[in-house]
Design a protein that fits this description.
There is one protein chain. By secondary structure, the chain is α/β, with parallel strands linked by helices. Helix content is about 45%, strand content about 15%. The strands form three sheets. Strands 1, 2, 3, 4, 5, 6 and 7 form a seven-stranded mixed beta sheet that branches. It has a five-stranded mixed beta sheet with strand order 11-10-9-12-13, with helices on both faces. The chain has a two-stranded antiparallel ribbon with strand order 8-14. About 35% of the residues are buried.
C-alpha cells in the first residue's frame, strides 16, 4: 500500500451517489444523524445473513480486526493467504491508487493461485449498486496483486421454503457477476481519483439537490442540504422536465406556481387547495364511494414481520407473517363502535392462531374496511396458500374489503395539510387532528415489526416484552380507530 490517500468502499459508494455527501461525511461529522432503531435493525439483519453465509463454507479463516484498522486487516489477510485456506472471511486489500475494501468471502480456486471474490447481500437479486460495490472490491484486490477469477454475488434465494431446521446452503444463491463487474471497473478508474480529491478538498462542493438525494438510498444529509426547501414544494408535485422548468425560474414553493402552468387534474386540486388554504371535496365522487359500504362494518388493520431469514415453516425469505390485527366493529351507521383484536405473544408460529381469531371476529357479512387493500388482501392470500384449510374464509374476507385509501388517493377529499400524501399518517392529522400518533412508543409499522421480532426472538427481557406488547396494542388500535374517524369525515361531507 502506498502513501496515497485511501478511500474505502463505503466512501466510494457514497461519493458515486453524491460527492457532496462524501465531503460532508469526512468534514462535517456533526451533521451525521444518529442511527435509528429501524436502520440498526437493517444493519443487524445484514450481519446475521453474513454470518449464515460463512456457514456454507466448512473451513475458513476470519479476519477479525475492525474495518478502520487498515494496515492490521491487510497484514492479517496476507498472513491468512499464506496458510492457503479454502476460504477467508472479511479479507482486506488496498490498491496502489488507494482503493481499500474488504470482501465477505474470498474463496480459493482449487488447483490454482486464483481466488473468487464473494460478496454477500441480504437482497433477493442483483442490484445496480451491487456492481459498483463489487467493482471497487475487484479493483482493490487486483491492484494489491491477487490473482482473481470470479466476482460472485451471494444473495438470498426467495424460492427457498423453510421446512424444519434452516438449510443455509439452500437459503443462498450464488450469481456469477464477473463480466458485469469487470465492465463496471471502468467507472472505478474514472471516478476514484476525483472522489479522493473531494475527500482532500477544504471547501464544500457546490452540488444542487436532486434525484441523487434519494437514489439509490436516502442521503443522511437531506436535512442539511434541503433546509431551504419548503415542507411542501415543487419536489412533492413534479419530476423531470416540468420540475426543472419551475426550478430554472426560481420557483420552489407551490404557492408560486403560475396559474397557466400545465398540470394534471390531481395536481391542480393540490395546488388550488394549498394556495386557497381550503379543503377540496368532490361530494358526488365521495357519495358514490360510500355506496359500496355494507353494514356491519369491520375496520381492520394488520401488523406483520418479514424477516430475511425465515422463522416459520412454510415461509420464504421476506415472507409476510402476520402477528397482530386490530378490529373496530360498527353494526349500523352512526351506531356505537366496539373494539377487539389479536396479538400473538406465545412462542412459535403466529399464523394458525391469527387466522382462527381473524375469521371468528370478522363475521360472515358486512364490509371489511382497510387502508391500502393490497396489503391486507395480499397477506390473506399468502395465508390461504400456506393454510389451505382456511383459504375459503380468508378469500371471503378479501371479497368483502373496501379500501378507504381510494377517496384520499384519488383526491375526492383533500386537505392542504396532507401535502400531497395519502398515507394514513398524513391524512389523519390533517382531517382528524385530535387523533395523533405523537407520543406513542411505537408509531409506525416498521418499528412495530422490529420490536415484535425482538420479543419473538427473546432478545429482550420479559418486562420489556410486556411493554412492547402494550405499545403494539396502542399503535394497532389507533390505526383502525383512524379508519373509523376518517369514514365519519367522508360522511360529513355528503350529509
Amino acid at each position: 500500500m502506498s502513501n496515497d490517500p485511501v478511500i474505502s468502499k463505503s466512501q466510494y459508494l457514497k461519493g458515486l451517489q453524491c460527492p457532496k455527501a462524501l465531503w460532508l461525511y469526512r468534514h462535517r461529522p456533526d451533521l451525521k444523524p444518529e442511527v435509528s432503531a429501524v436502520l440498526q435493525h437493517l444493519f443487524d439483519s445484514g450481519h446475521e445473513v453474513g454470518l449464515l453465509a460463512q456457514k456454507c463454507f466448512e473451513v475458513g479463516i476470519e479476519i477479525v480486526e475492525a474495518y478502520y484498522k487498515i494496515k492490521a486487516t491487510i497484514q492479517s489477510t496476507e498472513e491468512a493467504v499464506a496458510q492457503n485456506p479454502p476460504a477467508i472471511f472479511e479479507a482486506a486489500a488496498c490498491s496502489p491508487d488507494g482503493a481499500y475494501s474488504r470482501i465477505d468471502i474470498m474463496r480459493k480456486c482449487r488447483g490454482s493461485k486464483a481466488w473468487d471474490l464473494i460478496e454477500v447481500k441480504s437482497t433477493t437479486s442483483v442490484k445496480g449498486y451491487h456492481l459498483d460495490d463489487m467493482a471497487l472490491q475487484r479493483h482493490a484486490f487486483a491492484g494489491a496483486g491477487y490473482s482473481l477469477r470470479k466476482s460472485i454475488l451471494m444473495h438470498i434465494d426467495n424460492q427457498y421454503v423453510k421446512s424444519g431446521p434452516l438449510e443455509v446452503r439452500k437459503l443462498f444463491h450464488l450469481e456469477d457477476c464477473t463480466a458485469d463487474v469487470e465492465a463496471q471497473m471502468a467507472v472505478v478508474r474514472e471516478y476514484l481519483n476525483p472522489l479522493k480529491a473531494v475527500l482532500s478538498c477544504s471547501t464544500e462542493p457546490d452540488i444542487h439537490i436532486g434525484d441523487q438525494c434519494n437514489q439509490p438510498f436516502a442521503c443522511d444529509y437531506i436535512p442539511y442540504c434541503w433546509q431551504h426547501v419548503p415542507a411542501y414544494s415543487v419536489y412533492n408535485l413534479f419530476r423531470g422536465d416540468k420540475r426543472e422548468e419551475l426550478l430554472s425560474k426560481g420557483i420552489l414553493d407551490v404557492a408560486d406556481i403560475p396559474e397557466d402552468f400545465d398540470v394534471t387534474q390531481r395536481q391542480a386540486i393540490e395546488i388550488d387547495a394549498y394556495k386557497q388554504n381550503r379543503v377540496h371535496a368532490d361530494r358526488a365522487a365521495i357519495s358514490k364511494f360510500l355506496d359500496a359500504f355494507v353494514y356491519p362494518l369491520f375496520f381492520l388493520d394488520y401488523e406483520t414481520i418479514n424477516p430475511a431469514v425465515p422463522l416459520c415453516d412454510g415461509t420464504r425469505p421476506y415472507h409476510k407473517v402476520p402477528f397482530q390485527f386490530s378490529l373496530h366493529v360498527q353494526q349500523v351507521k352512526g351506531g356505537p363502535v366496539t373494539h377487539t383484536g389479536f396479538l400473538h405473544t406465545r412462542a412459535g408460529d403466529p399464523r394458525p392462531h391469527f387466522v382462527k381469531e381473524l375469521v371468528g371476529s370478522c363475521g360472515g357479512t358486512g364490509s371489511v374496511v382497510v387502508y391500502n387493500q393490497p396489503f391486507e388482501a395480499g397477506v390473506n392470500e399468502i395465508l390461504a396458500e400456506t393454510l389451505p384449510e382456511h383459504a375459503a374464509a380468508l378469500r371471503a374476507i378479501n371479497g368483502r374489503m373496501v379500501d378507504l385509501l381510494i377517496p384520499f388517493r384519488s383526491r375526492f377529499l383533500y386537505h392542504p395539510d396532507m401535502k400531497g400524501s395519502a398515507s394514513l399518517k398524513s391524512v389523519l392529522p390533517a382531517l382528524v387532528p385530535e387523533l395523533s400518533y405523537a407520543g406513542l412508543a411505537i408509531a409506525d409499522g416498521e418499528t412495530a415489526s422490529l420490536m415484535y421480532l425482538k420479543a419473538l426472538k427473546n432478545e429482550v427481557p420479559d418486562e420489556e416484552k410486556k411493554r412492547i406488547y402494550a405499545d403494539l396494542w396502542k399503535y394497532c388500535r389507533l390505526d383502525t380507530l383512524a379508519e373509523v374517524k376518517l369514514l365519519e369525515e367522508l360522511y360529513r361531507f355528503v350529509c
